[in-house]
Amino acid sequence: MQTMYQKMDDAELASALADLKAQVAEVKARGLKLDMARGKPSPEQVDISRPMLDLLSSSADLTDEGVDCSNYGCFEGIPSARKLAGEFLGVPAEQTIVLGSSSLNIMQDVIVHYWEKGVPGHTPWHKLEGVKWLCPAPGYDRHFGLTEDLGIQNIPVRMTETGPDMDEVERLVATDPSIKGMFCVPKYSNPTGVTYSDETVRRLATMECAAPDFRIVWDDAYAVHDFGEKPEKLANIFDFAREAGNEDRILAVASTSKITFPGAGIAFFGSSPSNVAEVASTLKVGLISANKLNQLMHVRFLPTLDAVREHMERHAEFLRPRFACVQSKLEEGLGGTGCATWTHPNGGYFVSFDGPEGSAKRVGALCKEMGVTMTPAGATWPYGEDPRDTNIRIAPSYPSVEELSAALDVLVLAVKLVSAELASEERA
Amino acid sequence: MQTMYQKMDDAELASALADLKAQVAEVKARGLKLDMARGKPSPEQVDISRPMLDLLSSSADLTDEGVDCSNYGCFEGIPSARKLAGEFLGVPAEQTIVLGSSSLNIMQDVIVHYWEKGVPGHTPWHKLEGVKWLCPAPGYDRHFGLTEDLGIQNIPVRMTETGPDMDEVERLVATDPSIKGMFCVPKYSNPTGVTYSDETVRRLATMECAAPDFRIVWDDAYAVHDFGEKPEKLANIFDFAREAGNEDRILAVASTSKITFPGAGIAFFGSSPSNVAEVASTLKVGLISANKLNQLMHVRFLPTLDAVREHMERHAEFLRPRFACVQSKLEEGLGGTGCATWTHPNGGYFVSFDGPEGSAKRVGALCKEMGVTMTPAGATWPYGEDPRDTNIRIAPSYPSVEELSAALDVLVLAVKLVSAELASEERA
Question: Which chain B residues touch A146 with a CB distance below 8 Å?
C-alpha cells in the first residue's frame, strides 16, 4: 500500500514536508518529557493492590495448611499458592513450583540448567555447536535476551493474527535438531496482543520436532489481563501435549507482577510431573526456599482465580481508557494515510505499531528529539534487528491519559514526517 | 588420645557395652522424635521479627529516597537497603546489590556466570578441564553443592582455630591455576563457630594465586549473630584486598535470613566497583528488579547496623540457653572420657562435634534409631566424605531447651556406645 505522501505530486510533498517540519520544530520548543517505553502500570493502578499489605500483620497467622511460612522449608511453595498456580497454568497443584517474584528468573534458571547439564538423557546444550531457538517476532526483548546471553542463535518467526506462523515453525523444527526451543507469550502476546488460536496451541503441542529435547517456554504473562468486552480464551496446551505424549515439552510460567506489585509478586512454574521434580531438584542447589510470607500475603489477598479475575476488572478500568486513547489518536492522526497499521488488543500491555518500511528507527529518534521516549525500535526482534524496520511497541499503561494523548500526537507527527521524508527520498 | 573404653580391661569393657546397650534399648522404647539437624531459629525466636510486618500497610509511603518500591525499576536495590548492605559487608553502598531473599542464590548466580562466560578477560570455566575449588572443612554443605553441581572439583582444606589452614591454602593456590576459588564463612563459621583471625583475612586477601581469575566467596552469614560475652570482630577483607590490588577477588554476600524471617529476608552482594557493575549487568538478563517492598519493609524495621545489632541481642536470648545446654550436657556426659571434642562458639548457629575416628556415621545412625535426627554425618565435608569420619554438626537453635536436653542425652549415649564398640572391635 502507498502512503499519502507517496501519492502526492512533488509540490504537494514539498509543502507537506515544510509544514510537518515546522510542527516538529514547534513541539521541540515545548520541551516535553513523556514516556511510552515501559510496560508498567501507572502508580494509581498499582495502588489498587495496597489492601494486600494489611493482610500480614504482627498478629496474623503465618501458616498455610500447616506450613510455617515464617521459617525455612517447603521449597516447592506453600500449598495455597501452588493451588492458585495450578489454576493459572492449567495443571494440577503438584505440577507447579511457586517461587520468588520473577518469572523471567525462572525461565532463565531452567534454560541455563539445560544449557549446563542438558535435558535429562540428552547432551548439555553448551556442548553442542550452533544451538538455535525460535523467537516469534515482534516479541518480547527480555525473552530473546535469555538465549542470546548463552550464545544460542535466535531465529525470528513472524507473528500472525493466530500466533506464530505455524507452517514456518513446523517446517523448521521438523528438520533441524539444533533448534532446542521456542518462546511463546500465548495470550495477549507482547507486543501484538494476539491470543494464540486453539489450532496454533494444538500444533505447538503436537508438532514433530527433530530435537527430542525441544522445549516451549509458555510465558502466560497476560493470562488474566483482559480489558476488552469479552476475555479471549486460550486453549490449555497441557491437554494437547499430554495426549500427544509431549507434556515434557511445555515449560509454563506466569507471575502476579502485573496483578499485584510489579517486581514484588509471586512467580509460578508448571510442567510435567517429571520436569517439575527435575527442575525442583536443580533449583534446590541454589535456594533453600522462596519468600513464603510473600506467597502467603498473595493467597490471602487472591485466594482463587475467580478472586484474581475480580481484581483484574479493576486493573482494566485503568487500562481501558489508555488503550482507547491510543486507538482514537492513531485513527484520528494516521487513519487512511497509508502510513501505519496497529493492533487493537483486548488485553495485555501493548499496542504493536508498524510504519512504512525503514521508518521505525527514524521515528523513534525523532520522538526522542521531541521529548517522547518509546521502546527502542527493533527491540521487538532478536538482536534488535527488525528486518523491515517497521515495528514500534507502544506501552500506554504508565502515563496519564493526558500525557499519553500528548505523546501520541508526537508519535503521529513523527510518523508523518518520516513517511513524507521517505517518499521524498524515493524520488531523489 | 585414648577413649575411656580403650583404657578398660576386657571385662570392664564388656560390662560397659552391656550397660550401654541396655540404655539404648530403653531409649528406643520411648519412641522419641527430636531434631537437631537444622540450622533454623525456633518459632518463638522468629516471632521477634513480627512487628516488621506492621510497617508496610495500605496507607504506608512506599517510596525510599524517591524510589517507588511498588513498581518495576531500581535493579541494584533501594538506596536505604544498599546503605545497610554496605555497612554489613564493609563496602560503600555503591559497591552493593540488594536482591531477593537468598544469598545462596546470589552465590550460585555469580559462580554459574563465571562458569558460563568466565571472569572478564579469562576463559569460561566450563571450557577448562578440571576446575577446582577450595572448601574449608568442616564447612557448609550447601556451598559445596554449588560447585559440585557444576562438576567443579571440591578440595577440602582443614579448618583450624584461626580459619582455614592458610599454609595449605597458600601452597595450593600458588601453584595450581585450575583452583579458581574458595568458600569462606569468615565469622562464626558453619559449623566450627571459628572467626577468621586478622592474619588469616590478610593472607586470603593478599596471597599470590596462580589463577588470575581466582575468587573468594566471602559468605558473612553470621556477621551480627553474636551471643557470647563479647562479639568477635572480623577484619574487613576489602581493606586488605584493595591495598593489594585484589579487590576483584572478593565476592561478599550476606542476608537477613537469620535476622528477620528465614527464607523471606533480603540478601546482599558486595564487591569491587567493576565486579558489581559486571554482576549487575549479568543478573539483569534474568531479572527486571527484585522485591523492593520487602527491602523497604526491612529497612524501615532495621534502618542501620546499630538497629540490627540491637535486634540481634534479642535473638541471642533464645540462642544463649540452647548453646549453654549443649555445652553443659556434653561436658557432663562426655567430659574426660576421651571420646569427643567440640567447639564453644560465641555466635552463629552450630557446634562442631568430633568423636573417635570412624564413629560419626555410626553415631548418626544410632541417634536416628533412638529417634533423634542429626545433620547427616559427612555433610560438613565435600561430597559427604569426612576422611576420618569424626565430625557431626549440632544445630541446637530449633528445639526447645527441654527437647534439646533430651536429644543431647541421646547423642551422648550414642557416642559412648559407638566408642565402646570401636574399642571392642580393635581387640577382636
Answer: 285-286
Mind telling me how many Å the CA of A192 is from chain B's nearest CA?
21
| pLDDT on residue A428 | 83
- Residues in chain B closer than 8 A to A116 (CB atoms): 112, 115-116, 126, 150
| Distance from C-alpha of A340 to C-alpha of A254, rounded to nearest angstrom | 32
Mean pLDDT value of segment B366-373: 97
pLDDT per position as a tens digit, A262-321: 999 999 999 999 999 999 999 999 999 999 999 999 999 999 999 999 999 999 999 999
Which residue of chain A comes nearest to B101, CA vs CA? Answer: A291
Residue B295 CB partners (closer than 8 Å, separation 6+): B64, B69, B77, B78, B80, B81, B98, B266
Read off the pLDDT of residues B247-304 as tens digits, 9 standing for 90 and up.
Answer: 999 999 999 999 999 999 999 999 999 999 999 999 999 999 999 999 999 999 999 9
Calculate the average pLDDT of chain B.
97
Q: Where are the domains of chain B?
A: 4-45+309-427, 62-303
Topology at the third CATH level for domain B62-303: Aspartate Aminotransferase; domain 2 (3.40.640)
Q: Residues B282, A146: contact at Cβ < 8 Å? A: no
CB A180 within 8 A of CB A131: yes
Per the CB < 8 A criterion, the answer to whether B213 and B122 are in contact is yes
Report chain A residues whose CB lies below 8 A from the CB of B58. 50-54
- Look up the ipTM and state it: 0.97
| Facing B60 at nearest CB: one of A53, A115, A145 | A53
| Closest CA–CA distance from residue A428 to any residue of chain B (Å) | 43
pLDDT digits (tens, 9 = 90+) for B188-214: 999 999 999 999 999 999 999 999 999
Of A38, A49, A294, the CB nearest to B291: A294
> Which pLDDT belongs to residue B49?
98
Question: Distance, in angstroms, between B360 CA and closest chain A CA?
Answer: 25
d(CA A133, CA A155): 6
Chains A, B: CB pairs < 8 Å? 154
Angle of helix A305-334 relative to helix A401-427, nearest 10 degrees, comes to: 40
For A282, the closest chain B residue by CA position comes to: B149
Q: What is the mean pLDDT of residues A356-363?
A: 98
The 10s digit of each residue's pLDDT in B335-367 is: 999 999 999 999 999 999 999 999 999 999 999
CATH number of this structure's domain A4-45+309-427: 3.90.1150.10
User: Considering CB atoms only, which of A50, A101, A289 is closest to B263?
Assistant: A289
Instruction: Quote the minimal CA–CA distance from B292 to chain A in Å.
Output: 7
Q: So what's the pLDDT on residue B192?
A: 97
CA distances from A12 to A15, A24, A386, A425, B357 (A): 5, 18, 31, 15, 97
Find the residue in A nearest to B71 (Cα): A262
> In whole angstroms, what is the distance from residue A36 CA to residue A347 CA?
17
